[in-house]
UniProtKB/TrEMBL annotation:
It comes from Prymnesium parvum (Toxic golden alga). Signal peptide: none annotated. Essential component of the cytosolic iron-sulfur (Fe/S) protein assembly machinery. Required for the maturation of extramitochondrial Fe/S proteins. GO terms for biological process: iron-sulfur cluster assembly. This is Probable cytosolic iron-sulfur protein assembly protein CIAO1 homolog.
Amino acid sequence: MRLEEVAALQGHEELRVWHIAWSPSGATLASCGEDKTIRLWGRHGATEQDGGGWCCQAVLEEGHQRTIRCVAWSPDTRFLASCSFDGTASVWECIENEFDCVASLEGHENEVKGVAWAASGSLLATCGRDKAVFIWEAEDENFEVAAVMHSHTQDVKCVAWHPHEDILASSSYDDTIRLYSRAPGDDDWRCTSTLSGHTSTVWCVCFTADGRGILSASDDRSIILWEKQGELYSEAARLSEVHERAIYTLSWTGSTAHGLVAAGSSDDAISITQVALSSTNNPASLRKDGMQPSAHQGDVNCVAWRPLPEDQQDAASMVGRVVASAGDDGMVRLWRCVEGEASDTMHLD
């Protein structure tokens, strides 16, 4: 298997594109960056097979005063959330393909680095440089603070929700991952677990398809798979020296037991790693499958697998799956997994 570039999307007016997020259907890709805008990309006049025809269909402006660091779709695609170095998060509502900024969430003391929706669509999480994690309760266009947690001792880089439960993970400059939840019948959120294993900043964290596993990436150039045993997650597998420099971003695609994790790094490359969760007869494992060097002319800030249709989500084959990437070169790129040996720019282990 190798990666094949199928589209290069250019439009952001400043070089750094920070983040990308697919809509739940995979029909629209949102990107954001230093130019203080969100761009929405979709396909026009092309088939799924040729991979082309992607263009910018809308630009969302005036929601933020500084760099937009992260975007996230609500599960029903009705809302798009964004967060910014201006210390706020914004919520955009889509009505008949028109987006309006319907809420500005204030509370963080400075730069907001991450935003994520819970699977229920009723909770939104944000995190930032102020070492805080906020959980907001969402009801239509109204958002109220449900909890503010100061469990981390340094800048919080990323927040990610469990795919089915109200369990939140965050990663930080303090080299740890924290997990938050509520006890049954209790409205109070609390930090329930701290995962320590990385030796430097944990830039990104994501859950596997059923939430049994958590994947994390770090400045220490490693990827760790944590598996849930009983009520707690513990380290199940580790892959060291995946990249030559810090790993900034991770994205998972696959079934409940096996999948691929794409990673992007400050070495300008994208890596692909095979993930197998533990089974009765086999321990969990991480196996590096390949490396796409010079994926961008600069840091790879975000990677995101395009969602599969519901009837294909458990498909064993990874061929044809599409991963998007965003980088410091101002570009958003789309790559497709195809059969065959690696080209000169794809080195298999």
